[in-house]
Amino acid sequence: MAGTISRIRLENFMCHSSLHIELGDHVNFITGQNGSGKSAILTALCIAFGCRAKSTQRAATLKDFIKTGCSYAAIVVDINNQGEDAFKPEVYGNLIILERRITDSSSSTILKDQHGRKVAHRKDDLTEIIEHFNIDVENPCVIMSQDKSREFLHSGNDKDKFKFFFKATLLQQVNELLETIKDQLNNADSIVEELEKSIKPVMRELDELRQKIKNMEHIEEISHDIDNLKKKLAWSWVYDVDKQIGEQTVKLQKLKERIPACQERIDRNTVLLDELKKELIEKEENVRSLAKKTREVHMMRKNMDDSITEVVKQKVELEAEHDRHTDMLGKMNKRLRQLQAQLRDFQLQHMQHTQVEASQIEEDIQNIQSEIDYAHSNITRLKEDEKEFSEELSGILKSISEITKEITENDKKIQDLKYETDDLLQRQSNKVTAFGGQRVLNLLESIERNNRRFKSPPIGPIGAHLQLASDFWSFAVDCAFGNLLDAFIVSCHKDLQTLRECAKQVNYNHLRIIVYDFTRPRLNIPDDSLPATKHPTVLSVIQSENHTVLNVLVDQGSAERQVLVQDYEVGKSVAFDHRIRNIKDVYTSDGYRMFSRGSVQTILPPNKRPRAGRWCSSPGERIAELKNEVADFQRINSEKRGQKRKLDHDRCNLEQKITSLKRKREPEERRLANKRLQLDDAKKASAENNSHTAVDTSELEEELKHVKNDIQQKELLLQKANVRLTAILREVDDRKAAYKTFMEH
DNA sequence: CTTCTTAGATGGATTGCTTA
DNA sequence: TAAGCAATCCATCTAAGAAG
């Protein structure tokens, strides 16, 4: 039957290393002792079908499901896909294989067909299958986990139980569905009502249209009748015309009989007509030649008359022009004399004026120039002083900012040192607080109280169970393990739950808990798995009386593959120069992390807040050292603050000096600007004076020249007019003589 | 050369905490 | 108690290396 699970395979999932279960067609029972992993199978099914890690209430993240000491977990679920309910049988065939893999850093879902071929890998494809088969792992009636059943049975409240039942049996869903359907029905009803209302006017319109169509049909019949009548009328006209044609044909026949007699008379008259025509042509020719001659004579006379009148007119005009020119010439000569006199007067006046004014202006300009020079030298001096002071001020400001920066940096250092001192002071009273702070103490107390609930008491924090061969590597080891040192180790998942409860009680959230088999002997690492280098590994510099702690640091922290080096340069050569096998990361004693992944080489700086000294063997000494350092920094800071105060005082003085200089300089500059404007004005005035007189004479001279030119032109025109006048007089005489001889003829 | 596995990056979804 | 923000989870993609 489609949708049933036929087989489940688990690898490294929770407590199962490798588990195969074949399921029957109907009801299946799984039995086993407490803690044998029955509910792990149910959890695996939930995870396979896409449940979130948290909602199983068995782990915080997916990777918590990976069996301790393993790198991955896998769940494979075979789902039957036969029968009419089958999901995409053409793609998957009779069987859908759902494979879920979880690794430390990622997880994936793969869907395969009956032959094990990969078909899909996206979450959406899985969701489609889940929806198709109506698998609802979050529904407590589909999967009733231990916690759910306990919660259900122990909730004494009937209301809560009904709520649970209501949700589980999908009644809630049905209820919601019914509500939405009711809403939709109401909506549809109101829409139908509205539509009915709106249809009424349309029906009325339809009736009117039908009436119109009926009328149109009647009109069509009438027009048909009209057509028929028109045709009849046309035919009646045809009959009439036919009758008339018959009568006209008879008349035509009679007229044809008279044609030969008429033709004879026509011939006789034609001969007579030809003779008369010839005579007419001759007479016409005579008349035409006589008329032509008369016209020519008339024309010549008229022409002569016209030319004489024209020439006389020209003569009169030329005489008038001559008089005009002579008159104008006289006037121009008079103007010329006037202008010459004016020019002489002007030149005389100008000579007298310029001499007096020029000497006055020259004196003014010299005075102003000397004042300007004085003011300019004053300003330059003031500016130089100001510049000198400003430079000094900027130097002081620079040193002030440097000192302020140093003070801030030192304050920060003091703060960091104080933090470290506080840490150490706390640790002096209890070493454990180095790994998680004050809350670890509360957690340990809580563990103590719940001691009986644990199968084996948890080990932690891991850092508290470690000793270092030498303090030199403490910072590097701290960087290499990071938060792993704050983690706790438990022996089974039940203990993990209990420990998490304890942590919650004391508000220690996000406590890292590692599940590990306490009975496992100390891991024996073969030499060929260790990095081939003379530098120590993290594993080689740590010691612990607890082998589980060491095992966990190897499994979770790769302690045997983290190499420690003295300084940055050595670290780079170890990490990148020769590709040494089995090296995971290289840490320098001052906390730099270096590693290469493929071709990419990465160097990460140390943590911002160093926590070296977590394993410090003598915190007392270190505290004294830190206190000395703090005192040093404080002393330096107080010195620097003194310097800063002095510099601030100097700065104030300089600023005052600069302001007073500025106050002196500004009015001086304004005066200079005023004087410059005066000088410009004076120069402009003198220039204007000169140019004005010059322009006046030049204008007169120009006019004079112009008038002379005009006179010359006019004289030329007069001469031409005289020549034309004599020519015209001669022409008049000639034409009159010619006319006289013509008339005599 | 192809396929599989794994680590790491990325961005949307979810969860938890703080504050008004 | 709801809104806003930050931290965390997890699906998905890509690239490198391993295996066949």
From TrEMBL:
GO cellular component assignments: chromosome; nucleus
Record region (Disordered): 677-698
Compositionally skewed regions (Polar residues) per UniProt: 687-696
Keywords, sorted A to Z: ATP-binding, Chromosome, Coiled coil, DNA damage, DNA recombination, DNA repair, Nucleotide-binding, Nucleus
Stretches that traverse the bilayer: none
Coiled coil: 167-219, 266-293, 322-385
Any Gene Ontology biological process: double-strand break repair
Domain Rad50/SbcC-type AAA: 7-233
A single MF term (Gene Ontology): ATP binding
UniProt feature, compositional bias: Basic and acidic residues: 677-686
Family matches, as InterPro entries: P-loop_NTPase, Rad50/SbcC_AAA
Localization, UniProt: Chromosome; Nucleus
Family in the record: Belongs to the SMC family. SMC6 subfamily.
Protein name: Rad50/SbcC-type AAA domain-containing protein
Species in which this protein is naturally found: Brachypodium distachyon
